[in-house]
């Protein structure tokens, strides 16, 4: 397959806020190829999450166009992995992962197979019957990832999925995500605060500006795949890329600080 | 004041308050086993000289109390079921759906809380009569099947559910009704239990409304049924108290079973029931 999976033209988003208007996104122009792993970094409050919610169809943009290429109408267009609290607490891991399939009327036998497959991929087979409260934060996020993959979406949206877990767990989760994704490629839009994470995972890193958010810089990540998280970070190419992303980002983070200072 | 003295004072005050609260209840229990002459004696004595437990049997026989209990149960359970349904739907709309003027609607609803129930008595009566519901279970249940307080309580509970959960459910293909039924309702079970309890207690204890909206023994709930022991010229206190104990028993049992949830729920809402 080839061609663009996601295209936005002059995409903008405004919210009414206490009688005034908050411009969250302005003039976002973007193309993402099919099967591309795209990471978005940006200062806090720059509208990254809003952008993702628009891609997911949870919000509708107030300006511009969004085009998502549907190649297989039988599969859901997108699935999303949230930061936390999105596994359903009263369902077992197995039921969580199979929920989207159940909602789409997939037969129980087929469902069991798919669920088992992805549980194995994320290493949760032994916890299939466990409830979320019995799991660590990292395991909950694994379940979320498995759930997102299970419905075979054409686009996978991830909103800082590993931000709430500890450093070591995060590295493991990143490796697992890469492994699952490499065997089951799809377009991924991945939002993160961490430059390292963006570079480890992505084919391309997009730097978003402070509010109103737009795409400020694009850095292609030429590092070879398959990648190993820890080895990668010690290479000189990696350090060079970090500097490339940090330069535009730094100005934006500073900018968002002074904007906050003005506002308070 | 030392910590010790302060604590002693606190306990003394709490004990005094407890005695004041408990006294009518104890008085009712003791009077319910007194003889007629002792129940009306002056000056009154606290303890009966003769414990007449037969008062309970006499009271039960004085009127069709089985029927009255059944009517009260139908009224309470019907009101609970209807209240839960209306509260869930309204609270969901107010918490989750983007309705134009939602804030205003909610404000107007809240404003109705300041209307005393006495004011709505006559309009309700007229409405019931015009609907032809006088002397029906519908009249006993429907007017109290929706309460702003319940809507408020449940809306707060729904608002506390994480946004991610809703988003995730929607992305997995959930619609509003399914989300409400499969997610919001099961996750708000403690609040729903409080609503059921408070609504049930209120309906069970209601006296005025059933008194004016029904006039047959077939529909008479227990609280109205108890008036059998009062007449223009005298009141049969010991039997009235025995009947009251019987009428109160289900509520007391229910309270003992659920008091922890009840107190927590009221504390959580920050308001009285």
Provide structural commentary.
The complex is a heterodimer of chains A (264) and B (273). Chain A is α/β, with parallel strands linked by helices and 264 residues long. Chain A folds into two domains: 4-71 and 154-263, Rossmann fold, CATH 3.40.50.300; 87-152, no CATH class. Chain A is 40% helix and 25% strand. In chain A, helix 5 links the parallel strand 6 and strand 7 (187-192). In chain A, helix 2 (93-103) crosses helix 3, helix 2 packs parallel to helix 4 (137-150) and helix 3 (108-121) packs across helix 4 (137-150). The longest helix of chain A has 28 residues, at 236-263. Chain A starts with a strand and ends with a helix. The model of chain A has no long low-confidence stretch (mean pLDDT 86). Chain B is an all-alpha fold and 273 residues long. Chain B has a single domain (63-269), classed as MetI-like (MetI-like fold, Orthogonal Bundle). Chain B has 14 helices and no strands. Chain B has helices spanning 3-31, 36-39, 54-62, 65-96, 102-111, 117-130, 137-141, 148-159, 163-171, 176-187, 189-205, 208-213, 222-225, 237-269. The mean pLDDT of chain B is 88. The interface between A and B is medium-sized, with 22 and 14 residues.
CATH topology of the largest domain in chain A: Rossmann fold
Strand content of chain B: under 5%
| Stretches with pLDDT under 50, minimum 5 residues of chain B | none
Name given to the CATH homologous superfamily of the largest domain in chain A: P-loop containing nucleotide triphosphate hydrolases
Distance between the termini of chain B: 36 Å
| Assembly context of the chains | heterodimer
Number of domains of chain A: 2
Would you count the extended β strands of chain B for me? 0
Radius of gyration of chain B: 23 Å
Number of helices of chain A: 8
What class, by secondary structure content of chain A?
Answer: alpha/beta
Spell the H/E element sequence of chain A.
Answer: EEEHEEHHHEHEHEEHH
Shape of chain A: globular
Structural Rg of chain A: 19 Å
The CATH class name of the largest domain in chain A reads: Alpha Beta
- Assess the beta-strand content of chain A as a share of residues: 15-25%
Count of the domains of chain B = 1
